[in-house]
Amino acid sequence: MDIVELSRMQFAMTAMIHFLFVPLTLGLAFLLAIMESVYVMTGKTIYRDMTQFWGKLFGINFALGVTTGLAMEFQFGTNWSYYSHYVGDIFGAPLAIEALMAFFLESTLFGLFFFGWERMSKVKHLAVTWLMALATNLSALWILIANGWMQHPVGSEFNIETMRMELTNFAEVLLNPVAQVKFVHTVSAGYVTGSIFVLAISSYYLLKGRDLAFARRSFAIASAFGLASALSVIVLGDESGYEVGEVQQVKLAAVEAEWETQPAPAAFTLFGLPNEETQHTDYALKIPAVLGLIATRSLDEEVKGLQQIKEENLQRIIRGQEAYDLMQRIRAGDKSSATVERFNEVRVDLGFGLLLSGYTDDVLNATPEEIANAVEATVPKVWPLFWSFRVMVACGFLMLLLFACAFWHSARRTVDKPKWLLKFAVFSLPLPWIASEMGWFVAEYGRQPWAIGEILPTHLAASQLSPGDVLFTLISIAVLYSIFVIIEIWLMTKYARKGPSSLHTGRYDLETAEAQEA
Questions:
Q1: In sequence order, what DSSP letters do the residues of 118-142 get, joined into one string?
Q2: Element of type H or E holding 272
Q3: How crowded is residue 505: how many other Cβ atoms within 10 Å of its Cβ?
Q4: What is the C-alpha separation between 258 and 254, in angstroms, rounded?
Q5: What are the tens digits of pLDDT across the range 183-203?
Q6: Distances (CA, A) of 15 to 176, 214, 446
Q7: Greatest C-alpha distance within the chain
Q8: Is the Cβ–Cβ distance between 236 and 185 less than 8 Å?
Q9: Interacting residues of 431 by C-beta distance below 8 A, sequence separation 6+
Q10: Are the beta carbons of 385 and 446 closer than 8 angstroms?
Q11: What is the rounded distance in angstroms from the CA atom of residue 95 to the CA atom of residue 93?
Q12: What pLDDT sits at residue 95?
């Protein structure tokens, strides 16, 4: 593997392991706020116990999540230095704000939450808990604004004098529609993760016949919050699909294995076997008109197929060659009005000229074969995206079914939940993490071959390091992060098995507390 592939592998591994911790932090923070709100309103100690017990598991996850996130930001300087140079003026702003949110505001509130129980009034501590929940979401917001800009760069332009992208409108970056739908979809997925976590562990206690009062209340809160969150994820996922259809048509076509442009409205492929060689989906099972409704919100607009997109990209590469030539001439001193004016007309396709540089050292005299290779590179492999998306959706609907059943039994105040439902909940524990990882894979792999969508190709973004350097750090991070994951699982398992009764050793158990409050 070359330096680019090794750097991509390292960043992918770092990001995907880090995101094992993030959604649980997002979800548990709001569940803690809800539980403590009930405690303050009712005065029942059991809800304080719930807040403290789930808060202990939240704290373990939060600490390891922050630790794994540190290496990601450093990699922009170590492994992707030209990326940082080229777009640092824009990309660095939301990252800097996120750092302030995560390492100052969020961490301060985190400390107050854990050490303020006996030092603040109930209402003040509740305010801290809600602020902590909001801070975790604000931290995610700025990261997703940065990521949304990578997907759909707005509010910026290329400066030919400095050979860098420069910020022109921060409001456009902040209100980037791709960033906004990614944010609400991601945090909703986090709420689902937190709800499944609480639901699964509570179901385990119910199956074991222990900590029943605690488990029933936790089960009820998680089922209600989870059902609302799961429905939100589906609705917001649909909105995300619409935005992808607007600004990332190649990703949408690859996810849906849409090889050819079909007459409107396009059908959604529920199942099939994408065949890269024949450019056809074998054994396709399609639902009429659904893709058209998701991607265009209409029944009379077509969804572009990969072949049509490639034809359009061929023309963009040709214009990109011209933009590359004009850029070189301007840099050499030809600043005539005709040259500058023509460059401004074709500069939007400069990224495609830069993409061609990955296949030839002489961009201006590229052979038809080299141009054809660049055209093929503008489309990611279909089958990984096709299947990742469907695994994500399948997990989502399984979790929706679980929450619906759990909420139904909670609303009926069924004291003894059916064992099949409790086992379903326990075995569903991995589902939100599988869905989240698949979702991020679709988002990032579907963006290739671009580090910044249609502006900076990935092969130009990497640092000038030796493959040995990156391989060493790749192995080191893999070992270190594996240790972090093992620690997380061990600590979570240890304290989950101890259960909430451990909060009151030598004082009273939760069943006694419930009887006293009744």
A1: TTS-HHHHHHHHHHHHHHHHHHHHH
A2: strand 268-275
A3: 9
A4: 6
A5: 999 999 999 999 999 999 999
A6: 22, 35, 16
A7: 87
A8: yes
A9: 196, 395, 398, 399
A10: yes
A11: 5
A12: 87
273 phi and psi, to 5 degrees?
-120, 95
Low-confidence residues of the chain: pLDDT under 70: 415, 504-518
Task: Round to whole Å and give the CA distance between 163 and 452.
Answer: 15
Give pLDDT, residue 506. 41
- The CA-CA-CA angle for residues 238, 351, 371, to 5°, reads 105
CA distances from 458 to 108, 269, 346, 455 (A): 37, 30, 21, 10
Radius of gyration of the chain (CA): 26
Contacts of 382 (CB under 8 A, 6+ apart): 254, 257, 274, 276, 306
> Cα separation of 108 and 101, whole Å?
10
Q: Which amino acid is at 423?
A: K
Between the alpha carbon of residue 52 and those of residues 36, 114, 136, 393, the distances in Å are: 9, 8, 18, 33
Query: Residue 159: how many CB atoms within 10 A of its CB?
Result: 12
The token duo for 483 is: 């240790």
* C-alpha of 449 from chain center: 19
At 460, list the tokens.
């130009």
| Integer Cα distance of 209 and 46 in angstroms | 17
Q: Position 371: which residue type?
A: I
Q: Please give the Cα distance from 115 to 409 (Å, whole number).
A: 36
Alpha-helical runs (H) found in 79-106:
81-100
H or E element at residue 164: strand 164-167
pTM tops 0.70: yes
